[in-house]
Specification:
The chain is of the alpha/beta class and 429 residues long. The protein contains 13 helices and 20 strands. The protein has helices at 2-6, 20-27, 36-53, 70-78, 88-96, 113-121, 132-141, 184-194, 215-235, 261-278, 292-295, 329-333, 421-425, and strands at residues 14-15, 18-19, 31-35, 58-63, 82-85, 104-106, 126-129, 149-156, 178-179, 198-204, 241-243, 285-288, 299-310, 316-320, 339-341, 351-356, 364-371, 379-383, 403-408, 411-416. Strands 3, 13, 14, 15, 16, 17, 18, 19 and 20 form a nine-stranded mixed sheet that branches. Helix 3 packs parallel to helix 10 (261-278) and helix 9 runs parallel beside helix 10 (261-278). The chain is globular, with a radius of gyration of 24 Å. The relative contact order is 0.16. Bound molecules: pyridoxal-5'-phosphate (PLP). The site of pyridoxal-5'-phosphate has 18 residues, from helix 11.
Length: 429
């Protein structure tokens, strides 16, 4: 008994019932693990909340840029959500997965003629038009089609979302969409209404990403509706549809306190309904495009620690087998994360450790993380890596991209296989 008491039996971090060490042994590291249960739960939370607060007509369109694979298309389709794609690659993936084009919204601030053609040929549900020249191009390319092309115009409402500068998209000097101030948006609407092959259904706006303060959504709604009202007075045009983008933030570290999906839905729907009744503006169909808040918290990245070294200030640095190429967010936005020791969650935090990756840059993934004593061959788990990780991964230093494994219902399987060294040279001539 005494003997057994002395042995500490390591407890492994579990993801949807699976031991992270088992997943590591099965698939290797670095490894993205996606908990499908969490994705499905978030999809349902969105549907329930918008059904409750906007029973008139609300559509949830998952923003593919956050994370897209064939299997993810299947999950989103099964959950009955629509899909927002922002490139030919995302559209191709969706079509390959037989995602119904009648639920695909096509975005992009620099759509090439090939991308427009692909959207038109496959009869995408909506094209969200970024600028006036694109509008003319879509009109010309729609000439031979039997019906007008249904479009929304993207607006730049000129609002500073309270988030990192690099993920703001609706501010006053944004590259996205038609600025309300200065008359660009008004001019584009007038043009759209004269184009014979365009059916203007309404408008789109997206403030930015990882937003916690719901007052920005209220502000955006007020700005957009007062512009819609002005537009109605000047042209008689009334929008049938309004797409308010995505952006709801998630909890990367314990200090983050994002609002719930339900609260976000209530605030946004109240704002839209309130403005529409205040201005006696017919209530439009409402669309939202969440990405991060559906898939972000479903992801965990596992890394193996290879080396541990003391650095000059006396602190300790753990070097892991991934980094910048599978997670560019710390370098891009100084993003912070919660880390744990996956192979023994019972070892409590004892010191501040910096975790660095293996790329030829500073590649500091986590500065001064509170972690237990780390040893080579430990496994580190980084939470909340479902969104904008795999989708932003690169081959920097010619490292193959990691595998993506999904776990759900007692089943673990590969969503995306690990790239091989042969893949690395496969496009070279
Ligand atoms: N819609 C548009 C147009 C976007 O640009 C983005 C993200 O950049 C999203 C939706 C999704 O945002 P998030 O992942 O923050 O919900």
């Amino acid at each position: 008994f005494q003997y057994y008491q002395k042995i500490s039996i390591p407890r492994k971090l579990r993801i949807c019932g699976f031991s992270s060490v088992y997943l590591y042994l099965l698939y290797g590291t670095p490894l993205y693990v996606i908990n499908v249960y969490v994705i499905r739960r978030r999809c349902r939370d969105y549907k329930e909340a918008f059904c409750r607060y906007y029973p008139q007509s609300a559509t949830i369109s998952y923003a593919a840029k956050a994370f897209l694979t064939l299997d993810m298309c299947r999950i989103i389709n099964e959950e009955g959500l629509s899909l927002d794609v922002a490139s030919a690659g995302e559209l191709y993936t969706a079509l390959w997965a037989r995602f119904p084009a009648s639920r695909i919204h096509v975005h992009g601030n620099c759509k090439t003629p090939e991308e427009i053609e692909m959207a038109l040929q496959n009869r995408a549900h909506r094209i969200v038009v970024d600028n006036e020249r694109e509008l003319g191009l879509i009109n010309d390319m729609s000439r031979r089609l039997p019906a007008k092309t249904p479009v929304l115009l993207r607006l730049a409402p000129g609002i500073e979302a309270p988030t990192h500068d690099y993920i703001k998209t609706g501010h006053k000097d944004t590259k996205f969409g038609l600025h309300l101030k200065g008359g660009l948006a008004l001019q584009a609407v007038k043009r759209a209404l004269t184009l014979p092959h365009i059916r203007l259904l309404g408008f789109h706006a997206h403030l930015g990403s990882q937003v916690f303060d719901l007052r920005s959504y209220q502000e955006m709604t007020v700005v957009i509706f007062s512009w819609l009202d002005k537009l109605r007075r000047l042209t008689g045009y009334v929008a049938e549809e309004i797409n308010m983008g995505g952006g709801l933030g998630i909890r990367y570290v314990p200090a983050d306190h994002p609002p719930s999906i339900r609260k976000y839905a209530r605030v946004l729907c109240d704002a839209v309904q309130g403005e529409s009744s205040r201005l006696k503006y017919p209530l439009p169909r409402l669309i939202v495009e969440p990405g991060r808040s559906i898939v972000g918290e479903a992801g965990t990245t596992l890394y193996a620690v290879h080396y541990v070294k003391k650095i000059s200030n006396g602190s300790v640095m753990a070097i892991v087998d991934g980094g910048l190429s599978d997670n560019p967010r710390p370098a891009l936005y100084s993003a912070r994360y919660h880390l744990s020791l996956a192979n023994d969650v019972r070892r409590g935090p004892s010191r501040r450790i910096t975790v660095a990756g293996k790329h030829c840059e500073a590649d500091v993934l986590f500065k001064d993380a509170r972690l237990p004593e780390i040893r080579p061959s430990d496994i580190l788990a980084v939470s909340c890596t479902g969104a904008y990780h795999y989708s932003m991964a690169s081959n920097y230093n010619r490292y193959p991209r990691p595998a993506v494994a999904s776990v759900s219902n007692g089943r673990a399987r590969l969503m995306v296989r690990r790239e091989s060294l042969a893949d690395i040279v496969s496009h070279d001539m």
